[in-house]
Predict the structure of MHYT domain-containing protein.
Amino acid sequence: MLAAPVPVDGFTYGLLTPVTAFVMAAVGSALGLRCTMRALTVEPARRAGWLLLGAVAIGTGIFTMHFIAMMGFTADSVHIGYDVPITLASLGVAVLVVGVGVFIVGYLGRTAFALTTGGVITGLGVAAMHYLGMAGMKMDRGRLEYDGMVVALSVLIAVVAATAALWLAMTVKRFGVAVGAALIMGVAVSGMHYTGMAALEVQAQAVNGAAEGKSPAEILAPILIGPVLLLVFVGLFVGMDPLENEWRVSVEDEDAAFGGEAAFGGDAAVGGGTVFGGSAAAPEPAGSGAATYFERGGRHGG
């Protein structure tokens, strides 16, 4: 019997799965971007640990977003299962690829090259996790087919939004902008996911009756327990950082850490919440004791 397209539903539980998935992506992104920013303020010996934690947070946020959203995905008369090793491998790929992006920023600083390259690689990490996760889907009498143009669009969305989020988070030191960067990163992950799902068509043999077996939610819930707990652990670690509410670093200190070169060639007044390529703010009077700081706690920092 020839296979034919079957109806699919990506919102079996209404808005519950897409909203919850977006929240998880934004939370993971917020923690990961915070860890990446924190890495820029510590000595090189400690930097790798913060960057690794940032990659774990963002990668895990991508993974949990994807599979929470997939809880709401069903195909008519087709039983959907998941290959556990491939599913978990998609988490590892997300952490690995995102890690490359954040390590570039962490060790090259807030330069245009580092932020752009890091953002592009991070966006590709989002896409890699999604399509490897989809490769782990098992159907009893169906197969997946994709529209190549829509797939390309989904990757572009991930890359552009992730790059924009990284630029905002790393260059404009204000709390509201940091929150906005996390939300943009959440849009990158969710937008990429649902665009990628729009490219999907399920081909299956026509069979009378409903699919038998466990629902996607029943299958995926146990798999998600570990990653969700991992995000909680990262959040607790960041929250218990003894310097988290007080840390600050002067522009001069950060420039010294990256070979004495100011980010963007000195054109951006990073500490003042500035525009790129504009003139730096007027310097403080000598002896005033007022240095430019990146601050945490909502006062000046993000």
